[in-house]
Amino acid sequence: MMQEQIDTLIIGGGQAGLAMSAHLSARGLSHLVLERHRIAERWRSERWDSLVANGPAWHDRFPILDFPDLEPHVFAPKERIADYFEQVAEQIKAPIRCGVAVTQVTPDADGYRVKTSQGVIKARNVVVATGPFQKPLIPAAVPDETIMQVHSSGYKNPAQLPEGAVLVVGAGASGSQIADELLRAGRKVYLSVGPHDRPPIRYRGKDFCWWLGVLGHWDAKTRRPGMEHVTIAVSGAHGGRTVDFREFASRGMTLLGRVGDYQNGVLNIAGDLRTNIEGGDRHYLATLDEADAYAAAQGLDMPAEPEARVIAPMPDCVIHPLRELNLAAAGLAAIVWATGFQSDYSWLQLDAFDAKGRPSHRRGVSELAGLYFLGLPWLASRASPFIWGVWRDAEYLAEQIAAN
Ligand SMILES: Cc1cc2nc3c(=O)[nH]c(=O)nc-3n(C[C@H](O)[C@H](O)[C@H](O)COP(=O)(O)OP(=O)(O)OC[C@H]3O[C@@H](n4cnc5c(N)ncnc54)[C@H](O)[C@@H]3O)c2cc1C
Fold first, then answer.
1. Closest-lying ligand 1 atom to the alpha carbon of residue 131
2. Does the C-beta of 34 come closer than 6 Å to ligand 1?
3. Which range marks the domain in which residue 153 is found?
4. Model pTM?
């Protein structure tokens, strides 16, 4: 049987794979995209029901297609985002095969041997676009049989969880939004808050995507030193609101420091809550300062917004923080782990990783000829894993592939 041969094989049919396909097609470069499930599958089945994009429709999109049905300032619901990527695939006539999983990639003469659920393909170039958030990361703290536990990627809605209080661990974009949703559904909620940034969703008439753009933050090439474990708490939910943990507490949420060890029904809680809340405040206020300085330097005629600087007093749960949580005494029925993701490249059997198992690359170009990565956090800049950032990175990779 003849083996199928492809110039460039793109693995993954999410936004990264489609951006790559668009840029290769624009250069007349032949390629194939393999997607194990459906286009933009993670937006369909690995996100909660009420999720809307964190960025507004004018920003969270590719330059080749807008959202004609949405006002620019609206935050698109997750199903609309998945539909959007199907429309992109149609518009660019992406050569995509859905329902085909790549199970192994090994080196081969003049390229790569790619084993799939539907046979073997030989590819000169391989672009790995399998996502920045591949495998749920749950700290092995609480034994499975103790209580219902779900990762944020498996959380759908409040009704999925048994009656009772809920502990949400992690207060980045996912954890803070899920905790808020559970609180609004009438649950007693405990939220474990780690170090975080919390940009104002809007300030002086512009949204945070605009501000991060003009202030050069999307273009940052590396994380600020010491900020490797700092999450970003933003939310497009309810029309877009600045994440404010004091406001959550004022509605009855109990904030906690970081979750530690578990023993005999009790979770230890670190004493870092106040530090983490104050760190988030500092970041928030520093962003306002930077925005004001930019507006002044550019002579922009923007309405002043002094009320944005008013910060409520520390809530009691921060002043007198719990240092342990007895699951039974707190009436906990479930834990939602919004603790992030890890990568899984076990199927990529190539010498393409550093000592920590991370892909070795420069702006997505691996040290192995013909191997590329796309869509990873900080691949080229802070914008890299996000919808509009991956478009730029894909363009760069297409230039590299064309040059070779
Ligand atoms: C909760 C949440 C909210 C987010 N909200 C926003 C937002 O509002 N705005 C924004 O810009 N970004 C957002 N992001 C970040 C980012 O846009 C998404 O994570 C996006 O899904 C990443 O796209 P991707 O194409 O790089 O990867 P993915 O969407 O993960 O796509 C990878 C694809 O590869 C397929 N695949 C994986 N392995 C294989 C294999 N071996 N063979 C074949 N196919 C395979 C998967 O099925 C998947 O469809 C959010 C992320 C999360 C987790």
1. 27
2. yes
3. 136-337
4. 0.97
